[in-house]
Structures
1.
Amino acid sequence: MPTDQQIYDKICELLKPYNVKNKPILRTSGIMSDLEVDSTAVFDLIMELEDFFDISIPMEVISDVKTVGELVLAIQELLNQ
Amino acid sequence: MSGTGGADVSAKPGLSIFSKYEPLRERASVLNKLGIDPFNMTFDDIMGPTRGRIGNREIILAGTNNYLGLTYDAGARAAAKDAIDRHGTGTTGSRIANGSYVEHARLERDLAEHLRKPSCIVFTTGYVTNLAAMTGLAGPDDVIFIDADAHACIIDGTRLAGTTTVRFRHNDPKDLDKRLGRQKFADGGHALVVIEGLYSMFGDIAPIDEFAEVCERHGAYLYVDEAHSYGVFGEGGRGIAEDQGVLDKIDFYSGTFSKSLASVGGFCASNHPEFELLRKVMRPYMFTASAAPANICAAQAALEAIKSRPELRRNITDRAAQLHSGLADMEFDLCAPASPVIAVRRPNEAQAAMEWNWLLQEGVYVNLAVPPGTPQSSSLLRISVSAAHTEEDVRAILAKFRALKDNSAELMNEMMRRMQASE
């Protein structure tokens, strides 16, 4: 089971190509609001995370996630199920 | 200003309720600087399935989804007029509250028969069809799997259903297979897989046969929206499912009247006779006015044309091939192989909007399609071909696209000038 830090690191790694303004990626960073990742790119990112962690992140979960930290928690919760 | 002593009655304390749309207002204002608002334009007249008019200018319509051109079919028009004379102009309520007209029932029976399914329900629009069916079918223990490029009505259907929803990669049965395999279901929970036959933005076709095989293996129900393909594909006009030989594998088959069926409304047919029960649970069916008699009777007449006039399908296939190959020869970036929907990818939204305005000015109406309504954040000039287009019409459309390409430098200069002039 990956640790909280490993999940965070993986998100940061996969976020890089979408973070076109190269802003610092913090747990408190809003994925769309701060990092300016558009909605289409968010779904691409989610699919990459799903493949890596071998989980499905339902759409209703995605719509509740605003920050990088919330995404870490959502993935952790799905992995624990 | 109001007439109450000069006070502005529209003023409210704090930020306006519309302030959240400020980014949208700014984006729309850029489009408006370039010419006509592509999302709020009016034709002065529509004269036929392929001709409209703005001022004194005749426009070739190449973006109306009027695939078979039947909106002006003599039979469909006569049926609609006769329905108004016999039943009036509106139904004034839902089928649950006011009852059904015999024409609603006849159309349901004939669509079911055409699709070789035991059940069919007619709805007020195509959008409402998917909304209603999905809310009726998916319960709290079920999981809906949707294609990544699903139409808004499918996404909205999942939201209204309130059910766990998982996206799979566009047109990728293997990705669906993987997701179905790893999904844990509650006791009594089922998988409902929702795809489209022809995707409306890029015009690409789903491998329904492969999806059907995956669904069969996992015991999942397959729901196919053939809004853009019913009447156009298949020997008998039964869509891509018929074309790929898997019509009988489709548990739920939805479509719209507002394309090949030349009217307004929608339908969902099913392999399962129990589908009829959903009339008593689907809120978007129960609590909206039923389709007007004229709309139902026009769709009935168009259905007869779909069954009896295969030449319409030959015409649209030929015209789509002609237009697609002409644009490909000019090296336009096309999003998919030839189909009645041909999407030309442009470098960005502003350029696409400028070109859309130029084409309209030159007498060709296509659709401007921009994110987030498009896959891959694409900006598109989207063309929909009609069986009513002639070879000459397609040549005229191609000539304008050729001129667009030849004049691209001047057009971009003009775009910059308009943007700067309004700053």
Note: The helical segments of chain A are 4-15, 39-53, 59-64, 68-80.
2.
Amino acid sequence: MKESASHPNVIELRRVHTRLGGTQIHEDINMAIRANEVTALVGGSGTGKSTLLRAMLMLLRPTSGSIKVLGQELAAIDDQGLHLLRRRIGMLFQYSALFSGMTILENIAFPFKEHTDLSPKMIRELSCLKLGLVGLAAEVGAKYPSELSGGMRKRAGLARALALDPELLFLDEPTSGLDPVSASALDDLILELQHSLALTVLMVTHDLDSIWKMADRVAMLGRGTLVAFGGLKEVAASPDPLVRSFFHGDRGPKNG
Amino acid sequence: MKDQADQRKQPPPLHSTAEGHLLCQGEWTLAFAAAIENDLEKFVWPPAPAISIEASGLKQLDTAGAWLLFRFAEKGRRAGKEVTLSGLSAKHASLFELVSAHPPAQAASPAYINPLARLGMRAVEEGSTALQFLSFTGETALASVRMISSAQRFRWRDMAANIESAGFQALPIIGLLTFLIGVVISYQGGVQLQQYGASIYITDLVALSMTREFAPLITAILVAGRTGSAYTAQIATMQVTEEIDAIRVLGLDPVELLVLPKLAALLIVMPLLTLYADFLGILGGMLMAGLMLDVSSTAFLQRLPAALTMESYLIGISKAPVFAVIIVMVGCYQGFMAKGSAENVGARTTSSVVLAIFLVIIADALFSIVFSWIGI
């Protein structure tokens, strides 16, 4: 199932252009995301990070160019292929996007019920297992999303994203809206799971602390295109003014 | 659509090589988990006290497979066997460790409550809902009194917008439906009256039933469905997104801001809509009488002043403000009671419409009892 080992590039973007409602969002974006690495996608507001993420999640079609995810060309994929591909991808949404009418445990069990033929007992056990993996207590499973704090909701969203053991995990601003302690704990958790589950992670983030802690590589969007892409240290040392202001602005970490 | 990978063939996941020696093989992943679980359930433990599980044959392992393996080993230990696991590759071992460090605690399932206790809880709940509704009605009444003394604070613009959406935009549907009801009454009543040669009394039948009962009732039911539901959905969504709290924190009164303009709008609009419904209902009845009973429009209209007294007309119109209050109170109350989720907004909207129509019909029945009692 995990061909990613033989496929060093989990995601490949070639000459991606996106226009939305007459506005050019992306111009000529080329990048490759390697297996078992954490790649941070950064850039100011309105530079099209979320749009690019949506394109990779097949929620939106780029105007031209090719996107390959887990070795499959998205432009040429059929419904069946898309269904199978989506099973291999997990996504943590910015506001967790937990189904508000279901308990946390039902939220986590949902992908199992839809995608597998497991027995109800097994589904229950695996859902509880995922709940434990993201560091939530068993009692939390019986609660509804509106009864949880933001940090717990993120963890529950992560548990749902990881339900089917995806190879590729997308995170949209995982630490936004969390206090520094919870944010740091969530970073640690994601790193730990990334190591033991051999995940490839692509995260959109503004949080410099998370980037320094987690990212192997950084892709920076700006001016409608990819301004910098490479190893974390390499990008941080780039002379480009956009990169400099992002990494070494007033709000940058002291160790940066 | 279930996963197709289940169709792929693979060797039995557990293979007994020698007495007390088991070999795991193939892919222990989610795609095969159902089959593996099935095989493990059927497994009969050999008599040997020590069991060694050799896992070097595993091609793939994910959390589902690791959990199955862990659960299987635990089951052996509970059966009094000494289970050892060996041969996991480094990658699989770290996964196995992760899973065994977080065995799923059984989440507490909802406690069983006996039916009698549930009935009691339900009764208490409904009782307190009724009390809360009463207190909400009182709160709105107080806010209206306050508003009379400071009319410049009243949201005239909101009221006008509500008059347009609840009144003006409802004209086509209410007009069409009451016209058709008039046609139906005229047809059904006319057939009976014709047998007695009393066709001209069709005017009395149509005019009285329309003005006293059908026009106010049909209007109220349509307004409850169109407008009451919209009120609930609007306020419930604002409640869920904390906008109601924002209004309070800004030092404003949500009842004053959201409920009063709606109440004023429906109090104005409902009598007007009822009058309009009276007119179209009688028009429908008159056209049908002309076509079916040979009661010409002239004859119908000549009979009308004698048939339709001012009293009957006023009785019908007087119901409209009462129905308006019911619809606004129920709609807004249900909205304020919403909490938590998008699903709750939908549930509240449904119960708002059902409850409003229910109360409107109850009120109409009470009107009939009271009117027959005082003899009008």
Note: The longest helix of chain A spans residues 180-196.
3.
Amino acid sequence: MVGTASTTPPPPAGGSGGLPQFDISNWPGQIVWILLIFAVLYAFMAWVILPRISGAIDDREEKISGDVGEARRLRDKAQAEAEAAALEVAQARAQGLRLAAQAQTEAKARAAARQAEEEARLNALVSAAESRIAEARASAMGHVTSIAQDAAAAMVERLTGVAANQGELDRALASSEAA
Amino acid sequence: MAAIEPMEQFLVRKIAPLPPVVVPGLGPIDLSITNSVLVMLIAAGALMLFFLLAARRQVVPGRMQAAAEMVYGMVDNVLTGGIIGDKGRAYLPFIFTLFLLIACLNVLGLAPGGFSVTAQLAVTSALAVMTFVTVLAVGFALNGLSFFKLFMPSGMPLPMALLIMPIELISFFVRPLTLAMRLFGNMLGGHVVTYMFASFVVGLGLFGIEGAGIAKLGLLGSGVSFALIVALMTLEFVVAFLQAFVFAALACVYLNEVVNLGHGH
């Protein structure tokens, strides 16, 4: 640009003396042009560009908040489902425990009843057997008495040569039995 | 060796002359395409092309769409949303356009062979006055005549008010001037300093090559100047975005005052 300086004669205010910016002759044109260009640029930005940019930003925020909301909704749903499932499991467990306890008590009661029944039957058998034994014993003892009588009568007859008195034999046996 | 003319880079030159447009009351206005206007057109065209390609409505953005949305988010969160608040959305297109146009013009001014439109006081003044008028228009549209409460802090005793009101008025009406001068000065200063160091690179370099003995130190000076230009250019890129941001942020601050007038801010 230094080389071209000589081709155009500098205006009076330019050159090495003062600032060319203070040369008023080129002010009106520059002022009109910068205002005109600003106006056009303003209109272009305000009506074409900025709505697009803010629209894109709004779209993005909407999409993000929508996606986040959807994700939150799905998470809440999953959580609720998990809670319901856990509740169901707990209920089932409780019911199972209750059923088990019930079955146990029932089984216990049944076992106890059967045991008691069996015991009663066995007791009856035992007492029947005991009474039979006592009968047998009594009858056996009866036989022993008559055998002893016979033996005593035979011994008395052999020793004394006299048949033994039946009444005395009975007495003697009774006294020995009592002793 | 060419003369060192640091201001030559700011000369406005006609590229395509157009017949002057006569505006009633103002006289003829020369709307010829100059190097300044050409860079403005390139900036506007580049911005429109970029955003036409970048502003898509994909849920998963590509690189360009992500960049466009990042700029939008920065303006929305930091500038209009952060400074003006909930009512700031309405002014987002204005601030968005202002920030991007100034940033783009600043960066194009740094391009090799480019022209720094934002180092033209006419341009920064036009943008500053436009911002000022917008603030005034919004202020009166929203508040009517209670707009003047802006200069009269509530609950102030009369003697104090008489003192404060002129100060408030001056600080209000000086805004377009400071807005214009800040951007203009930053761009002008950066370009002039860069130009000066660039002329040192060439001047001291030639001096070192042609001279002998102690003059060889010129080569060292040339190298240091070159390193400084690299550092300065880095700084200038930061400044290009920073000044665009400052301009837009101040526009937001001024808008906030009239939008949230009397709501305590």
Note: The radius of gyration of chain B is 23 Å.
